[in-house]
Please model this.
Amino acid sequence: MTSPQTATADAPTLVVEGVGKRFGDRQAVRDVSFQVARGELLAIIGPNGAGKTTTLRMLAGLLAPSAGEVEILGESILGVAGTHGVHRSVGYMPDFFGVYEDMLAWEYLDFFARCHDLSPERRDEAVTQLLDLVDLSAKRDAQVDTLSRGMKQRLCLAQSLVHDPAVLLLDEPASGLDPRARLEMRELLRELSAMGKTIIISSHILSELAEVCDGIAVMERGELLDHGSVEDLQRRRRPRGLWELTVVSDRAQAVAVLGSIEEVDVVEEAVVDAAVEQLGASTEDGAADSGGGLLPLPVADDAPESEEAHATDDLLAAPAAHATVVLALDGDATQRAAMVAALVGAGVAVAGLRPLESGLEDLFMEITRGGTDA
Amino acid sequence: MKRAIQRPTLNPVLVREMRARFRGPRAFIALTLFLAVMTVVTMVTYGIGYVSSTARPYYNQTDFGDTVFTVVVLFQGILLGLMAPAFTFGLLSGERDRGTWELLLATPLSGWRIIAGKMGAVTAFGLLLMAGVLPMLGMAFVLGGVSPGSVLLSQIAILSGAAMLAAIGLGASAIARTTSRAASLAYLGAALFIAGPFILLVVVEMLPWSYASNGSGLEIFVSTALQFSPVMMLLTPTLLMDYGSWDQAQWIGQQVLLQTVITGWFLFFATARVRGSVPKRGGLLSATLLLLGMLSWAIWRAAETVSPF
Model:
């Protein structure tokens, strides 16, 4: 993702400035602005009805924006909408896509190559190259209705590339795919990105996007709430970095010490008792399993005591239990060193301190407010 | 990949539609059924005519030819008229149903090329069906009493009427979101054009003052409305057979012209719906103005010349 400030220097492939779309009384998209450079992959994420598809359809020239400006390779798409010039620069794969079932795979691509006015020689070349790119060369002469969903999805992606567009707009390209097909789609996106294609994806599968995208744009209720690289968003959303502190001593004491330090806020107290975990793994019924870091519940007095319960009690009493505390911390290494020194000075045995990377899901939940406008 | 672009020689939509239409059994079945019905109609008509001619020694052979020609043309027109909307109502809505519509719109193809390609494929298939009937019409030549000009005019009239109904189907397909809705709309529109003027005529004839209103504005209006009915296009050849006058030939020309303008209007309408761009809206406006102009001319003609009714 290119920041607006550096856009002119980086000559972004796609510039979206203040774009909005109104359907009657409903404002579907409102004042969306971002820029994407060549070879970058931007993921637009947001709940259903957030305006992702409407935005992509406007970028694809299928919907005229009610407001704003879209430039691809320095040219406004609004000016050429009448002559459909935008379609020469943009490849589009809709969310609900279909294929002509009665055609052969090569005919399908050949048809779209004809639609883009490619010469017969270039059509043949493009069809062969694209079938190879999407790994469907073996299915060249297969009727489209005999292909699996994943293959059809790849074929549809190939048709969006048939005219060698600078910008690729993919609306939910991995929806409905099995894990293997998703993996293949991800690899394909990486390959296309490496080829210099500017790719914009709308998707719900956040965990997979984080691995392939260079930037994300979060939309909700037709508004672009935030955009940038995952790191940028993390930095902006959480300027006080999150850290995980592990202590091998009384957790309460550690929390008390941290509470006295002005630059530190305790976000979450979690306990991972290594000994209990080890025991939980060794027991057959898993009764003493720590279950994701939570302490086992105390055993009631009148409950029949098992051998495992006795062992758990013994281990809990042991001083070697590990406790982790998630904390938000201002400042740099000096402040962190001072915090550790304060803990050690108070008799807390510090076993570790590491930065926490929040995932795309965490960021998404933090940025969005959980509403739709559709 | 480097881009190498040149002007295409063939409309890609036409190529695809032709492939889709002629691949698979549908076209074969439609052609077979159509020709089977026409063959039965021709044979039955011929059989009845033969029996009549042998039973009556003074039976005029040319009347026999006339009858075969009239019945074959009438059934040819009715069947094509019924089939024409069915050929087109799914052309655009079917793309939406399949999910290929946006893929098509994401190409640089203009709305007009999309419509022309689809209509071209339908017309080609329609011409194939019409060509299949020619040998049956040829029987009328053998029996006598039919001129090549009459055959030509009858086929032009049928093509004009069928094209108009097909264009109505395409217009319905451009409006409706689903193919089933498009089918309902297409046949409703076709029924309006076919039966509407006749219903109007019956209503007018039932009016108490209708007998005293010869040459009135109402009669002129109904006479004009009748010219839009494709059924009239089917009856026209028989009228030609009866009269064969230059006036009747002119009347056919007028009808064909009117129906061509209506066909064009629906095609413009569908084109404007496809892309919704300003130039196409301008075209639609021009076509509407042309249609209104043609209507005025038709009304004037109906008032001035002798109506066949």
The interface with chain B takes residues 57, 60-62, 81-85, 87-88, 90-94, 96-103, 107, 111-112, 114-119, 121-122, 125-126, 129, 156, 159-160, 163-164 of chain A (CB under 8 Å). Chain A has 14 helices and 14 strands. Residues 179-194 of chain A form the longest helix (16 residues).
